[in-house]
Amino acid sequence: MSSARPAGLPHVDAKEPAVLVLPGPVTRDEVAALCAQVQKLLAGGGPRVVVCDAAGLGPPGLAAVDLLARLELAARRAGGRIRLRDPDPALHALLDLVGLRFQVEGEAEEREPALGVEEAVETGDPAV
Questions:
Q1: Are 65 and 99 in contact (CB under 8 A)?
Q2: Which stretch of DSSP H or E encloses residue 49?
Q3: Can you tell me the distance from the alpha carbon of 7 to that of 89, in angstroms, rounded to the nearest whole number?
Q4: How many CB atoms within 10 Å of residue 30?
């Protein structure tokens, strides 16, 4: 037995991801509590992303890299990911240097061209 699909677009429940504001310099004692908070936010269902507001994180250093790596690990264990909001450019460069890649709000996703970019074809190019 089959039934016809309803007309129109399917219903999409567009929920905003939870936001975790990271305080100024975080001590090693606070890291475990922040990881538990990420897991708690992901346990509630809904979007599988927690946005970490890194604007107030303080000067970039290995402590910030360690914190973000542990938050990502906690999120993955809970079946989700973290996304950074407003990271310091130096922190972003430091994360790239140590090989950690995080999705950052406002950046185009990998393999997705930025808005307004079109590929041009030269007239003498052979067909592929």
A1: no
A2: strand 49-53
A3: 47
A4: 13
**pTM: predicted TM-score of the whole model, two decimal places:** 0.71
What is the chain's percent helix, strand, coil content, to nearest 5?
35, 10, 55
Reading across the β-sheet that carries 103-104, which strands appear in turn?
18-21, 49-53, 81-85, 103-104
- Which secondary structure element, helix H or strand E, spans residue 43, and what is its range? helix 28-43
pLDDT tens digits, 41-77: 998 777 899 999 999 888 889 999 999 999 999 999 9
Share of the chain above pLDDT 90, in %: 50
3 state SS of 66: helix
The candidate with the shortest Cα–Cα distance to 97, out of 72, 73, 64, is: 64
